[in-house]
Design goal:
This protein is α/β, with parallel strands linked by helices and 534 residues long. Helix content is 40%, strand content 15%. The strands form 5 sheets. Strands 1, 2, 3, 4, 5 and 15 form a 6-stranded mixed β-sheet that branches.
Length: 534
C-alpha cells in the first residue's frame, strides 16, 4: 500500500528548501504552463510522463518530494501516482503556486531559470568579456584572426548559426581547444542562441587558462538575427577528432580547475560505497560526453547528459537538490569542467570518474529511461510490420505520445498528437476506428497508457512494440507537420526563434527577461549560487 500524501503550506515548503536536507520540488503541469509561472527551485515533470521520467529525475524512492501545480488538481494526481510507484515521502503544496505567491514568495517565468540566472550572475561577478554582433560582423568582414564556436548542441547549431561558426558544445570547448586554436593570437568568440551558454562557454576557457583572448557574443544568435545579419541554416562544421596533444592540454587545464574548485576524482571502490548508501543519499551518475560517443558505447543504466546541456538544463537532470553527483567521461576533462559549474550552482557534492573505471554492462544506442510501473502494464501490443499492413486497410487510428516538437518533425503517417495526461479527451476527437494504436519514442509510455485506457475505450487498444523507434529502424516512412493535433501542444516551451508571429519582438522580450535575472537573484534567498570571484 502506498504512503498517504501529505499537504504542506507555502511557509513549510520555504523552510524545507532551506533546511539543508535533500528535496525534489516537482511541478506536474505541462512545460508551457510551467514556463508561464513557477517556483524557482521546481523541476517540470508533467503528470503524464511520471512513469518514464521519475526514475531519472528522482532516483531515490525515499527522497523528500513535494509536488505543486497552479491550483488545477494535477499535483494531487501526480503525488498519488508517485506513491503508487513506490516513493515513500511525497507531499503536496497546498494551494500550489498561487498560495506560494500569495504568501509573498517570488514566482518566475521561463524555463531552466536556475541555469540561466546562474549564467547572468557569472557574467556579473566574474566580469566575463563580450562583444556585440556588430563588432563580430566587422571582424568577420575584415578577415581578422578569429574563431567562432557555437556552444549549443549540434542540432541547435545546425538549425541556425553564425557564418564561420564551428559547433563545439559547451563541455567540449576546453577538451578540443588545442586542436581548434593552435595560435595564441587568435581571438575566440563563443556564442549560443541567447546568453547562457555563450557566457558559460567563454568563462570556461578563461578559467581553464587558455592563452587567447576569449569573449562571449552578447545576446548570441538572437542579436545577430536582430541586427539583420545572415543566419546560416544547415551548417555542418564540427571539430576534428581529439589529438594526443589536445587531450594532454585539456587534462592539464582540467587539473588546474579541479584544484581550484576542489573537484574530487573517485575510484570504483568509492562509487560502490556511494551506491550502497543510495537508499539514504540520492546519487546521480551522468555521462557528460557527446551524444555520439554515448551512443557508440556506454554503461547500461547511466544517463547521457552532455556537459554543456547539463549546465544549461540542470532542472531536467538533477531534480533532487542536495544529492550526490558523479560525472563520467573518457579522461576527466569534460567531467571536471562541468563539475566546476555545478559546484558553483550549489551542488556541493560533485565528483568525477573515468568511464573505463565505471563497473557495469556496456551497451550502445541512446539512453532508455527505466519506466516505472511497466511490469504491471497489461497492454496488448502490435509489431511495426503488422501495423503497416493494417494501415493499408484503414479503420486504424494512431496516437503519438511523444513531445509535440519531435512529433511535428517526424511521425508515423496518419498519427495524431496527444499528451498522455489528456488522452481520454484526445481520443474523443479522433475519427472512429476499430483499433487504436498508441506509440511513444521507445514504446514504454505507450504500453502504460494503453493498459490504463483499454477498458474505457470502445475499440481495441494496442501499443506499438518498440515504439516509433522500431518503426524507424524497420525503414518505414515518416511524415511531418501538425495537421493532426488531437490535443493542445502545450508540452513544450518554444524558444523565441521557433515561435510564430513577431519573432523579433519575442527575441527582444526574452533577452530583456534573461538579463534581468541577475537583479532578481540579488534578493532571492532560495538560489544557492556560490560563484567564484575573478
Amino acid at each position: 500500500m502506498s504512503s498517504p500524501v501529505k499537504r504542506i503550506s507555502a511557509d513549510e515548503l520555504k523552510a524545507q528548501l532551506r533546511d539543508g536536507g535533500e528535496i525534489a520540488l516537482l511541478d506536474a503541469r505541462e512545460e508551457l504552463a510551467f514556463g508561464e509561472r513557477h517556483i524557482l527551485m521546481a523541476s517540470c515533470l508533467p503528470l503524464g510522463r511520471i512513469e518514464v521520467l521519475a526514475d531519472d529525475m528522482v532516483p531515490r524512492r525515499s527522497a523528500r518530494v513535494v509536488w505543486c501545480d497552479d491550483g488545477d488538481g494535477l499535483a494531487q494526481r501526480a503525488a498519488e501516482r508517485m506513491t503508487q510507484l513506490g516513493y515513500s515521502d511525497v507531499s503536496l503544496l497546498d494551494g500550489g503556486v498561487k498560495d506560494w505567491e500569495a504568501s509573498g514568495y517570488r514566482v518566475y517565468s521561463g524555463v531552466h531559470v536556475p541555469s540561466k540566472a546562474f549564467a547572468e550572475v557569472v557574467e556579473h561577478d566574474q566580469h566575463t568579456p563580450w562583444i556585440t554582433a556588430a563588432d563580430l560582423k566587422s571582424m568577420i568582414d575584415a578577415g581578422e584572426d578569429i574563431a567562432v564556436f557555437d556552444s549549443r548542441s549540434f542540432e541547435e547549431y545546425h538549425t541556425n548559426s553564425i557564418p564561420t561558426a564551428v559547433s563545439v558544445p559547451g563541455a567540449e570547448l576546453v577538451y578540443r581547444f588545442h586542436d581548434l586554436v593552435p595560435s595564441p593570437s587568435t581571438t575566440v568568440i563563443v556564442n549560443c542562441g541567447g546568453r547562457t551558454r555563450s557566457i558559460i562557454g567563454a568563462q570556461s576557457l578563461i578559467t581553464a587558462g587558455v592563452p587567447n583572448k576569449v569573449v562571449s557574443l552578447k545576446d548570441g544568435t538572437m542579436a545577430w538575427h536582430l541586427a539583420g545579419f545572415e543566419v546560416v541554416q544547415g551548417a555542418q562544421r564540427r571539430p576534428p577528432d581529439v589529438s594526443r596533444e589536445a587531450a594532454e592540454s585539456g587534462r592539464r587545464a582540467a587539473e588546474r580547475v579541479a584544484a581550484r574548485f576542489g573537484i574530487q576524482r573517485i575510484d570504483a571502490a568509492t562509487l560502490a560505497r556511494w551506491r550502497a548508501e543510495a537508499e539514504e543519499r540520492s546519487l546521480y551518475i551522468l555521462d557528460v560526453r557527446t551524444p555520439e560517443e554515448y551512443a557508440a558505447g556506454h554503461v547500461a543504466g547511466i544517463r547521457s547528459a552532455p556537459g554543456g546541456q547539463l549546465v544549461q538544463e540542470t532542472d531536467n537532470y538533477l531534480a533532487t537538490w542536495g544529492a550526490r553527483i558523479v560525472l563520467v567521461d573518457s579522461d576527466g576533462v569534460r567531467a571536471t569542467m562541468t563539475a566546476s559549474w555545478l559546484k558553483q550552482m550549489g551542488w556541493s557534492d560533485v565528483a568525477v570518474m573515468a568511464i573505463d573505471e565505471l563497473p557495469g554492462t556496456r551497451t550502445t544506442g541512446p539512453h532508455r529511461p527505466r519506466a516505472l510501473g511497466l511490469d504491471n502494464a497489461d497492454a496488448k501490443t502490435i509489431a511495426a510490420a503488422v501495423l503497416r499492413e493494417k494501415l493499408t486497410s484503414g479503420n486504424v487510428g494512431i496516437i503519438d505520445l511523444d513531445y509535440s516538437k519531435p512529433y511535428r518533425k517526424a511521425h508515423i503517417p496518419g498519427a495524431w498528437f496527444a499528451t498522455r495526461t489528456r488522452l481520454p479527451a484526445a481520443l474523443a476527437k479522433l475519427p472512429k476506428a476499430q483499433t487504436i494504436v498508441l506509440t511513444s519514442p521507445d514504446g514504454d509510455l505507450a504500453r502504460i497508457a494503453a493498459a490504463e485506457i483499454s477498458a474505457s475505450v470502445d475499440a481495441t487498444v494496442l501499443a506499438l512494440e518498440g515504439g516509433t523507434r522500431a518503426w524507424v529502424e524497420a525503414g518505414y516512412p515518416l511524415e511531418s507537420g501538425d495537421d493532426r493535433l488531437a490535443d493542445t501542444p502545450d508540452d513544450v516551451w518554444l524558444p523565441a526563434r521557433e515561435r510564430t508571429g513577431d519573432r523579433e519582438s519575442a527575441m527582444r522580450a526574452y533577452l530583456a527577461w534573461e538579463i534581468d535575472l541577475v537583479n532578481q537573484m540579488r534578493t532571492d534567498d532560495d538560489q544557492r549560487f556560490q560563484v567564484a570571484k575573478g
